[in-house]
Structures are given as structure tokens and as C-alpha cells.
Specification:
Chain A is mainly α. Chain A is built from 14 helices and 4 strands. The radius of gyration of chain A is 22 Å and the shape is globular. Chain B contains 18 helices and 24 strands. The chains are: A mainly alpha, B alpha/beta, C mainly alpha.
């Protein structure tokens, strides 16, 4: 049981980190007053650019896999910044409908990734649209000393991906930046009441650009973290993680700490179908073995139920939970007041 | 002459609209200078240019004799210009302290540092006797304190030139006296004060000189001691104005609308917004609800109109003999309610629909406007053209002009036309003259009185005490969600109403009955 | 000299005429907006092709632009594939008109597909009734699937964008479960069985017009529905209410229009249109297969672009639907030159983006033009003074 819990927690963290990082990105852009539902697209770009970088750079250039991992991160961030910039220009400078420009990015990102994968044969094989992920090479096997701490050492310091530490660092830094710095105070003012911020001499547009760019950095990292640690191959999709991150941000009330807890909850649901394997008793209950005396005509049906119906229902859970959570949180929302509203200096 | 501020030949346009046309204004050091003008005369635009929120298309600004270029509020800040805006520029979810330091924060090793700011603010508040609660969030403090926070923002930035945009709109008569004392103290210290207002008696009370704007143009600058209110009014409007409204004595008949024990909580169910409201409106009379903004008037209107249906159990609202508490908005409209809303662009009109579509927005389903679910556009057009004639609604394309393209006064006329032409006998008018110029205000007042004389029951919500005194047959004073007094306009005074408005006086229920 | 004077007088008169003309609500033609956006999208697509494979880029572009009409067969297939695109475009546009953004068309499409195919496979009925019932099943399923986020929006104020996205994933997994059901699953095509003669939509002999193509009733149905939707929005009280809610929620509430009911109706009609699109897709004689895969179909997002290109005008959607279908057909032929068909989605994304910013660009161009006219006017004044 102990080992099962450790294994499951480790799995949950793998899914939670990309969610947290991306949701924090969403938090920064919304706190500044720009909605960004293109997190999904930006994640895809981050994942794509980062993966291609770590796959194509010759391993011999690097003293360690960790440095290669860092290069992938940097590349991902550059990709993310470009796409966030596309959204920022439309949303802030051109005062476009923010949902339309984000939809364009969500359409563009996977199409571009697939197109380049196919055209430049970046895939596993000629004609394949799947990029191989060799993520396990980045695993940190043991952190000396800390790995010996009971339980915590096993979950946080044994066989972990670097993304775990980056994710936690991003969480801590985000909280500090948002609440303890001049930048954070000003950014929040822009999202709550841009007119007040304007009158206080703050450049709304500049703050909002910064908010969107931070979301680009964090969402692209989220995508990169997700594919390098959570999947084996990449075919230009992050399976709705970007949208889930938005739900996490909403239910986390645009606050870093709440976002972290919400993300853990969602990650627990997301990994449930895989995690069940760690708990034999639960697995037995969910997928009872077919009794030997079952009539043959029923065997097919029971197999269908246990291999198709139940696992897919479990897969639905995070999305159903999101809806439930949105219903529950709809009455009491602390959304930044001016989020998604175009700010026009000339208007009163 | 030693001028603190000189704005010379300022011109500013917004698209086709010329907000300021060659305006010149000079303010002496240490004087209190008023800017007088009607809504839309260009006062706020002029001051926003001085404060760096807008950039003038032409003209120059001199501060203490030196020509300056004010590109943004930061420049204004450096030149020690501060401004209290009509609509406060405060972040609701920030604390008072955070709001004051926003934009001029101190940092220590990259982190926010607030201790020195706190010290300075406390010193200032003692010196000027401005009581503020530094650690409360803006949404939890009174409007009066919010204004003090705005004043503190200027003082914290060491401003020498203080601009007040309509500072008295949200205050009781008594609070206004307090504010004026502070302002006089600032002037005595050598600060230069500009007050934007459209209230003549306030100018007579506090200002040394006054610049009058009309339709974006500078009309004249006068010494206040050389003029009287009538002269100022004439300069402001451009013709002789008579602010008293002519009307006959009301002959109220049967009760049309009645409210009993109306209670309403806010969204979180924590604060009571309407507290045991009881009153009635009879046919042939105008009842005015007076009060400072934010004392529950808006919610009262929303409760009556049905926009906020979540009144507490036990609340009763009877319209023409039927309890409408559980009725939909449409049912209420069908029962005889007409409603001129406070926010005419947000509620009163669908801005992207054209005038004729707007004229039937609450009657489009009636048989005269539709047949088998198909809209009878020809009928609607005819109906609209009729109303355009009758109510003198002006727009570029007549019935097909989009509501957005119309001027504020004509938008209001359109709403009034729609609401008074449909079948109704109870008219609920929330701040019906807000933001209108004098001509339009006169028009609205006349229409309301004509409605009354036709035998309809009228409930007006107003923040302007002059308006209340002029048009009402009965006055209800609201404070913190309760009715504090019921008064006869002929027997009361503005300062008495002020005492009830601020909550320093309250009628007992027996007195209320005696008075009526 | 007189000549000049007369000329200036004429110019001035024209200027005055221009100024006195009643101002049109929209100065920048929406059709022009769309055309420019489409051209720009194609340009970007071409530039990307140029960057990836310079030698074949021009040929690729030619194929992209002509492939959709190269042969009568391709032409027929362009129209055949346009039917569902028109309908999903209408689905998105209809919700748009009520101020709702239905990103869940893909999910509604998948769920409707399942419902349609279940009726096609499991119900025994003679020909016209069978396909009609199957279509009806798809329409109803789509309405229900879109109605759920509508309800959540109306009663709990849940953002419909997020809700419909979540419904996409739930629908996708539901689709997987339903498709694997042995009663309908066909292992040889790894999809829900697609052979059901009585449920196929009739081809009405149109394949004679476009020999070799799959064209059938679908496109005609789509065009008829587009006209109906246009009529509904333009001429009926229901359309008046729905648009009022879309333009201004507080304004429509004030006027006594039932916000909740209209939001739900709008979403349900939107979903029904998506369902109809699914039905004609899966009931065609040579249909797309509905496979149990963990992937959201892209059709709903294509619907967004179809709607945006036409700027939500139902009649315009007929053209934008055919256009997107045409480009997609062209992309298929372009693949022969080694370009992936994903280029269409890149082009589509750029078009969406351009439409999104077009009002800004339009205003910008207009401002430049006004300045130009003003400058002209001033120079004329100067000329007069000389």
C-alpha cells in the first residue's frame, strides 16, 4: 500500500506540474486584464519546439542531459513568446476580440506543428506524424541526502523529472511576484480597474503585454514539461491540458496557492485510469475478473464493459469534474474585473 | 500676473466631436478656480488634458510660467498636479494604502516597501484632519472616505495643483461643508485649486474666480464676487433659464403601486441593502426618492423593475392590485410598469439595434407588431415615425439610425417616448436627467409632469436635490437602504433633507403619517 | 485659371456631398474584409510552403487553388464536403448571434454521429423513413449535447467556452464507448459499421452531374437550412429576441426578454445544426468513418472559421463553407507534391486571425484615408487663398 501511494503520488505530480505552470500563466495574463484561451495552442508550440530541439541537437554537444533539457526549455519559451506575441498584438494593440485571436492560435499551433513534422520529417519515421519522446533520459535518479528522507524523499527526490523542481520554483516565484512586488501590484491594478491604474500613471498596455508574455513563457514550459514527462510520443496535441489549466485557474480563484491545490486535484483525476493499476484492490473492484462459469455469449459483453466502458468513464471524470466545479464556483468568483475587456485610452 | 496654471488655446477632438475648441484658462497661485459648464461642455476633457489622460490636438500649457508637455499622468505627477476624478479611480479589492501608493511605490531589494509610505500618510491625515482607514479594502469603506482616499493620493504625491471633478455629487449637504473647509485650508497653504462643477450655489460659496465653458468653447472668466447665480446660469446655458418647473397642485387619487416590508440582501447574503421599505405611489402624483448615491436606490429600482428578483420572503410589491414580487419582468411590464432606467445605454437601449427596433423592444410580440411569429416591420416603422414626430427625436437616419449613433439627449427622448407611449399607469424613472444638458432636463421634467397630469403614478429616483424639490409632490429620503423620512416639498428645506440623507436624523413612523 | 477654379469648386462640392451623406453604420465593407483576410491567409500559407520546399511551392499553391475544381469528380466532392461545413458554420454563427461562443461543435458532431449511426444500424425501417429518422436522431442528440452547456450558462453562469470544450472531451470518450459496442462496431473498418442501404441519404441523381463524386442530398439540405436560418434571424420574433440577447444581455433583460430561455434555445439550435452536419456526413454512401479514437474532430473548429469568414451571415456561410471545402480538396491534391494537408488549417488560422483584427485594420485604413482627405481639403483651402 505504501509503495502504491508513493507511485500514485509521483504520477499525480507529473500531471500536476504542467497544469500548475500553465494555469499560473493564465493567471498572469488575466490578472493583467487579457483573457488567453490560447494556452492550449501555446502549450502545443512549447512542446513541439522543445521536443524537436532536444531530439535534433546532437547529444555529444552536451556535458549532461540536464543541460540539454535546459536548451529544450529555452527553445520552448522562445516559441511560446512568439505565439503569445501574436495574441498580445491582436488583443492589446489591435483591440480584437480576444477569443477569436486565441482561437486562431489554437488552430494554428497544432496545424503548424503537424505540417512541419510531416514536411521536415521530424517524426519517428518517414510519413509519421508522431514525434518520439525519449523523456526518461532526463530523470534525476536520486538527489543525494534528501532522497533518504522517508516518504518525501521517495516522492520528491527519487526518480523525478527536472520539471518537478522548476514547477515548484515557478509556483513560489509567481506568488512572490504577484503579491510582494511593484510589478504584481501594478499588474493586478490593470486587471481590476485599468482606469485607476491609468490615472496612477501606469502604462496599461505595457503591463498587459508583460502579462500575456508571461503566460506565453509559462504555457510553453507547461507544454514542454507535459510531453517530456507524461507521454511517450507527441502528435501535436496536449489533450486539452491547456483548457483544463484554464478551469484550474478559474477554480483556483486566480490565486497561486489555490491553483496549486486545484491542479493536484485535477491531476489526481486525470491519472486515475493509470493510477488504478497501483491499487490491486481498487483495480479488482473496478474490473472484476470474469468468472469462469460465465456463459460464452456474455463474456464478450463483460470484456467490453471492463476494457472499454469503465476506463473511458474514468477518463471522462476530470472533464465532468471541471463542469461540476464551475457550477459550484460560479456564484462566488474573484475574477479580475476588467479581464477580457478592451482598454481604450480614448474612451471614457 | 503670477499664474500657477495657464492652458492657452486648447483644442481637442474625439472623431467628429469637438470637445474643446480654443479654450483658454488661467489659474492664479493660491486661488480656488471653478470651471462651470453643462454636461458635455468639455470641462472634464479640459482637466483630463491637464492631468495627462488625453493629449490636446492644439494649444499650450504653462505651469508656473513655464511651458510644459504633459504626456501622461506621470508628467502631471512630476509637475505636482493632482486630480480627484468624478468617478473615483480606485481599485476596489486593494486596501486604502495600496491605492494611495499605486504608481509611486517604494521598493527595497525588489520587494514592495510600505512602512515609510504608511508613516507619511498618517502624518498627512493628521495635518489635514482627513480620517482614513489604511488597511481596509475600498469596497468596504464609505463613499465619503473613498473621496478622502482620492484626496490623500494627491497629497501623498505632494501635489500643489489640485483638481476636483464634481466633488460634491456623492456628498450630503453637511459633508460638502466639510469638504469645502478642507479645500479652503489647501488654498490658504498656497495650493491652487480647480473645481469642476455645474452647481451654481457651490461656486458662489467657495470659488474666487470662475471660467465658463459652453459647447466646448470658453465663454468668459469672471470674478465670483462680481456676479450672482443668475448671471452664471445665463453664461452657462447661453440664454435666460428658469430653473423652477411650472406645475399645478397635484390631485392624487387611488394607490397604483405599493411596497410593503421590502427587504433585499446583497449577492453574498451578508449585507442588507434594502431594509423594510414601505411606501406607496398614487395616481396623479410624483414621488421622489432622494438620497446620496449608493444608499440602496439602484437596488430599489432593480427590485421594482424585476431586474433583481431575489427579494426576501415576505416582501410585497403591489401594482394595480397584483403582487408582482414573483412576476417576471415581462409580466410587470404587461401589468402597467414603465421604466426609464438609470443607465440608458446599458439597459434602456440595445445599442446595435436601430431606433425602430428599440421602440418596440418590450412590445415587439404584441399583435400589432407581429403575425404568426413574423415581425411586421412596416408597422414598427410607422409607429416609430409617429413617435419621432411626437417626441421630437433627432437622429441622422430617422427610424433606421442605430441607437449608438444618437446623442445622449435623443437616446433619453427615445426611451421616454417608448415608455410613455406603451400601455402603462406607473412610471418608474431612475435619474432621468443624469448627464443631460439644461434643455433636455427641462424637456424631461415637463414630460414627467404631463404624465402626472394624465393620471399616472410616477416614482422618480434622483440624486439632485434641486430636481427633487422642483418636481416632486412627495419626497422619500433614503439612507443605508431604509426610508428615513417622508416629506412634503413645500414644507421642507434642502438642509433638512440633507440631515435625513446623512442619517443624522430619522422620522419615527408616527411622524411620517402625520406629515402626509 | 477659370478652369482651375471650376475644378476646385467641383471638388469642394463633392466633398460637401460626401460629408452630408448619411453616415453608414459600417464604413468598411464586410465582404472586402473577408476577401482580404482570405488572400492574406493564402499568402501566409504560400510563404510557409516556400520556406519548407521552395522548388515545389508554386506548384503546390497552384494545386491548392485549382485542385478543388480540377475534375467534375473533384468539383462534386467539393460540394459534397461543403454541406457539413456549411452546417457547422451555421451552428457556430447561430450561437454567435446570441452572444455565445460554441467551441463544442466537434463534440456535438461526434455524439450526433453516434446517435445517427445507432439508428442506421439498429433500427429496421423502409428507405425514406429510415434515413429521415437517423437524421432526426442526430439532430436531437446535437441539441441535447449543446443544450447542457446552455443550461449551465443560463442557470449557473458557467462560461460556455469552457463548458463546451469540456463537453467535447466527454463526448469524445462517450463516442469511444458507444463505438466499441459489438452491436455496431465493424472490426474490418475499425469504426462503426457504415453499410446500411435504407439509411443512406439519397443522391438524387446528382452524381450524373459530377460523375465519380459522392455528392448527395446533403449540400442541398445545407443550403436550404442556411436560408431558413437567415430568415429566422432576420424576420421572426424569435430571431429578434435571440439577437437582442446577443447584442446586450442587460438591455434585453430590461425589455422583459427571457435571457435563460433564449440562451438555451440558441445553444440547442446550434447543436441541432451540428447534429445535422454529422448526420449527412455519416449517412452518405461513401461516408467518413466514425472511429473510436481519443482525438477531438477538427470539424467544429473549421465551423468557427466558416462562420468567421462569413462574419456570421447565414447566406455568406454558404459561400465560405464551399470555399473552405474547395481549399481542403485542393490540399488533397497538393499532398502529391509532398506538402502536408495541414496547410489548410494554417491558412484557416491566419484567416481567423485576420478577421479578428480586421475591424482595427479597417478603422486604421479609414483614419489614414480621412487624414488624406483632410489634407487634400486643406491644400485646396490654401490654393484658394493664393
Amino acid at each position: 500500500m505504501y509503495d502504491s501511494i508513493v507511485s500514485y503520488l509521483a504520477l499525480v505530480l507529473l500531471a500536476a506540474i504542467p497544469l500548475i505552470v500553465t494555469a499560473l500563466g493564465g493567471m498572469f495574463t488575466e490578472r493583467g486584464g487579457v483573457t488567453n484561451i490560447s494556452l492550449e495552442g501555446i502549450m502545443i508550440i512549447g512542446a513541439f519546439v522543445g521536443l524537436v530541439t532536444v531530439n535534433k541537437l546532437p547529444a555529444s554537444w552536451f556535458s549532461s542531459n540536464f543541460v540539454l533539457y535546459l536548451c529544450g526549455m529555452i527553445a520552448a519559451v522562445i516559441g511560446g513568446l512568439i505565439f503569445a506575441g501574436i495574441h498580445a498584438i491582436a488583443a492589446i494593440k489591435m483591440k480584437a476580440n480576444q477569443i477569436i485571436s486565441a482561437t486562431a492560435i489554437n488552430t494554428l499551433a497544432p496545424a503548424l506543428a503537424l505540417f512541419l513534422t510531416m514536411s521536415l520529417t521530424l517524426g519517428e519515421a518517414q510519413g509519421s506524424d508522431k514525434i518520439l519522446v525519449n523523456g526518461t533520459r532526463f530523470i534525476i535518479e536520486r538527489v543525494p541526502l534528501l532522497a533518504d528522507i522517508p516518504f518525501i524523499g521517495e516522492v520528491f527526490f527519487t526518480n523525478v523529472y527536472p520539471s518537478l523542481y522548476f514547477g515548484i520554483a515557478i509556483l513560489v516565484i509567481s506568488s512572490i511576484v504577484l503579491y510582494k512586488t511593484k510589478f504584481g501590484l501594478r499588474l493586478r491594478a490593470c486587471g481590476e480597474n485599468p482606469h485607476a491604474a491609468d490615472a496612477a500613471g501606469i502604462n496599461i498596455y505595457k503591463m498587459r503585454y508583460q502579462g500575456v508574455f508571461i503566460s506565453g513563457i509559462l504555457a510553453s514550459l507547461g507544454g514542454y514539461f507535459l510531453v517530456t514527462s507524461f507521454t511517450n510520443e507527441f502528435d501535436a496535441t496536449v489533450s486539452g491540458f491547456g483548457f483544463l489549466a484554464i478551469a484550474v485557474m478559474i477554480f483556483g480563484n486566480w490565486k497561486p496557492k489555490n491553483i496549486a491545490f486545484t491542479a493536484l486535484f485535477f491531476a489526481a483525476l486525470l491519472t486515475l485510469s493509470k493510477g488504478v493499476a497501483f491499487f490491486p484492490a481498487l483495480e479488482n473492484w473496478l474490473y472484476p475478473p470474469i468468472p469462469a462459469d460465465t456463459p460464452p455469449e456474455q463474456i464478450a459483453f463483460l470484456t467490453y464493459v471492463s476494457t472499454k466502458v469503465i476506463p473511458n468513464i474514468i477518463s471522462m471524470l476530470p472533464y465532468i469534474a471541471t463542469l461540476a466545479v464551475l457550477v459550484l464556483s460560479s456564484k462566488k468568483s474573484a475574477a479580475p474585473k476588467a479581464s477580457g475587456l478592451i482598454y481604450d485610452k480614448g474612451e471614457r | 500676473m503670477d499664474y500657477a496654471i495657464e492652458m492657452l488655446n486648447i483644442t481637442k477632438t474625439f472623431g467628429p466631436l469637438i470637445a474643446n475648441n480654443d479654450v483658454t484658462m488661467q489659474v492664479k497661485k493660491g486661488e480656488i478656480h471653478a470651471i462651470l459648464g453643462e454636461n458635455g461642455a468639455g470641462k472634464s476633457t479640459l482637466m483630463s488634458i491637464l492631468f495627462g489622460l488625453y493629449k490636446a490636438d492644439g494649444g499650450i500649457i504653462k505651469i508656473n510660467g513655464e511651458q510644459v508637455d504633459i504626456k501622461d499622468p506621470n508628467d502631471a505627477n512630476r509637475l505636482k498636479i493632482g486630480m480627484v476624478h468624478q468617478h473615483f479611480k480606485l481599485v476596489e479589492v486593494f486596501t486604502v494604502l495600496q491605492n494611495i501608493i499605486l504608481g509611486v511605490e517604494n521598493t527595497k531589494r525588489g520587494f514592495l516597501e510600505t512602512d515609510s509610505a504608511r508613516k507619511k500618510i498618517i502624518e498627512l491625515s493628521e495635518r489635514y484632519n482627513l480620517k482614513i482607514d489604511l488597511d481596509k479594502q475600498i469596497r468596504d469603506i464609505s463613499v465619503g472616505m473613498q473621496q478622502r482616499v482620492e484626496i490623500m493620493k494627491m497629497l501623498y504625491r505632494d501635489a500643489d495643483i489640485l483638481i476636483f471633478d464634481e466633488p460634491t455629487a456623492v456628498l450630503t449637504p453637511q459633508e460638502i461643508d466639510g469638504l469645502f473647509d478642507v479645500i479652503r485650508f489647501f488654498a490658504k497653504e498656497g495650493k491652487s485649486i480647480i473645481i469642476i462643477t455645474h452647481k451654481l450655489n457651490e461656486i458662489m460659496d467657495i470659488a474666487d474666480r470662475c471660467t465658463i465653458l459652453r459647447k466646448g468653447k470658453c465663454i468668459k472668466t469672471v470674478d465670483v464676487k462680481d456676479v450672482n447665480a443668475e448671471v452664471l446660469a445665463e453664461l452657462m446655458v447661453g440664454r435666460e433659464v428658469n430653473f423652477t418647473v411650472e406645475k399645478t397642485v397635484a390631485v392624487p387619487k387611488e394607490i397604483v403601486f405599493e411596497v410593503q416590508n421590502l427587504n433585499l440582501f446583497d449577492k453574498d447574503k451578508t449585507k442588507k441593502i434594502l431594509n423594510d421599505i414601505n411606501f406607496n405611489v398614487r395616481s396623479g402624483e410624483i414621488v421622489c426618492v432622494a438620497g446620496i448615491e449608493g444608499n440602496g436606490q439602484t437596488q430599489l429600482v432593480r427590485a421594482i423593475s424585476g431586474l433583481n428578483p431575489s427579494v426576501e420572503a415576505g416582501s410585497v410589491m403591489i401594482l394595480n392590485g397584483i403582487n408582482i414580487v414573483d412576476k417576471s419582468i415581462r409580466d410587470r411590464i404587461e401589468l402597467g410598469l414603465s421604466h426609464i432606467p438609470e443607465d440608458r445605454q446599458r439597459y434602456g437601449l440595445i445599442m446595435d439595434y436601430n431606433l425602430s427596433e428599440n421602440m418596440v423592444s418590450n412590445t415587439y410580440y404584441h399583435p400589432e407588431f407581429q403575425k404568426h411569429g413574423l415581425i411586421r416591420f412596416d408597422q414598427i416603422k410607422k409607429y416609430t415615425e409617429d413617435l419621432i414626430q411626437k417626441y421630437d427625436i433627432r437622429s441622422s437616419l430617422g427610424a433606421t439610425s442605430s441607437a449608438r449613433s444618437m446623442s445622449g439627449g435623443n437616446q433619453q427622448k427615445a426611451i421616454i417616448a417608448r415608455e410613455t407611449s406603451k400601455n402603462h399607469n406607473f412610471l418608474l424613472a431612475a435619474q432621468p436627467t443624469r448627464g443631460l444638458d439644461v434643455g433636455a432636463i427641462e424637456y424631461v421634467h415637463k414630460t414627467l409632469i404631463a404624465e402626472r397630469d394624465r393620471g399616472n403614478a410616477i416614482l422618480v429616483i434622483s440624486l439632485e436635490l434641486d430636481e427633487v424639490m422642483n418636481i416632486s409632490d412627495r419626497i422619500l429620503v433614503m439612507h443605508e437602504g431604509s426610508i428615513y423620512a417622508e416629506l412634503d416639498p413645500k414644507k421642507t428645506t434642502i438642509s433638512e433633507i440633507g440631515l435625513y440623507m446623512s442619517g443624522s436624523k430619522r422620522q419615527t413612523s408616527e411622524v411620517k403619517h402625520e406629515q402626509v | 485659371m477659370n478652369k482651375f477654379k471650376a475644378y476646385f469648386a467641383k471638388v469642394k462640392q463633392r466633398m460637401i456631398d460626401m460629408k452630408n451623406q448619411p453616415k453608414k453604420p459600417r464604413d468598411f465593407s464586410p465582404i472586402l474584409n473577408s476577401v482580404i483576410s482570405i488572400l492574406f491567409g493564402l499568402l501566409v500559407g504560400f510563404l510557409i510552403m516556400l520556406a519548407v520546399n521552395p522548388e515545389n511551392a508554386l506548384g503546390g499553391l497552384a494545386k491548392l487553388l485549382t485542385g478543388g475544381s480540377a475534375t467534375p469528380q473533384m468539383m462534386g466532392n467539393t460540394f459534397f464536403k461543403a454541406g457539413p461545413l456549411i452546417l457547422v458554420g451555421l451552428a457556430v454563427a447561430f450561437a454567435f448571434k446570441t452572444g455565445l461562443f460554441n467551441i463544442g461543435v466537434s463534440g456535438q458532431f461526434m455524439v450526433s454521429g453516434v446517435a445517427t449511426l445507432y439508428v442506421a444500424n439498429l433500427v429496421v425501417l423502409p428507405a425514406p423513413w429510415h434515413w429521415m429518422l437517423a437524421i432526426l436522431a442526430g439532430v436531437v442528440a446535437g441539441a441535447i449535447w449543446a443544450g447542457i452547456p446552455g443550461l449551465l450558462k443560463a442557470f449557473f453562469n458557467v462560461n460556455e467556452v469552457i463548458a463546451t470544450i469540456m463537453m467535447n472531451y466527454i463526448g469524445m470518450y462517450l463516442c469511444v464507448i458507444m463505438a466499441y459496442n459489438a452491436a455496431v462496431y465493424n472490426t474490418s473498418i475499425t469504426a462503426i459499421n457504415a453499410y446500411y442501404p435504407t439509411a443512406n441519404t439519397p443522391t438524387l441523381g446528382m452524381s450524373n452531374l459530377f460523375p465519380g463524386s459522392n455528392i448527395d442530398l446533403g449540400i442541398i439540405l445545407a443550403i436550404i437550412v442556411a436560408v431558413i436560418i437567415w430568415f429566422l434571424l432576420k424576420k421572426t420574433t424569435l430571431g429578434y429576441q435571440l439577437k437582442a440577447v446577443g447584442y446586450s444581455v442587460p438591455g434585453s433583460k430590461y425589455a422583459g426578454i427571457n435571457y435563460r430561455r433564449n440562451v438555451i434555445i440558441s445553444m440547442m439550435i446550434s447543436g441541432a445544426l451540428a447534429g445535422l452536419a454529422a448526420a449527412i456526413t455519416y449517412l452518405a454512401v461513401l461516408p467518413d468513418y466514425l472511429r473510436p479514437v481519443n482525438k477531438i474532430l477538427s470539424i467544429g473548429f473549421e465551423g468557427i472559421s466558416v462562420a468567421l469568414i462569413a462574419q456570421s451571415n447565414p447566406l455568406g456561410i454558404i459561400f465560405s463553407g464551399v470555399l473552405i471545402s474547395y481549399i481542403k480538396q485542393g490540399a488533397l491534391t497538393m499532398q502529391l507534391l509532398g506538402f502536408d494537408k495541414e496547410i489548410t488549417n494554417i491558412v484557416v488560422a491566419v484567416i481567423i486571425y485576420m478577421i479578428g483584427i480586421s475591424s482595427f485594420l479597417g478603422a486604421y485604413i479609414k483614419k489614414r484615408r480621412d487624414k488624406h482627405i483632410k489634407a487634400h481639403h486643406e491644400s485646396e483651402e490654401d490654393a484658394k487663398n493664393v
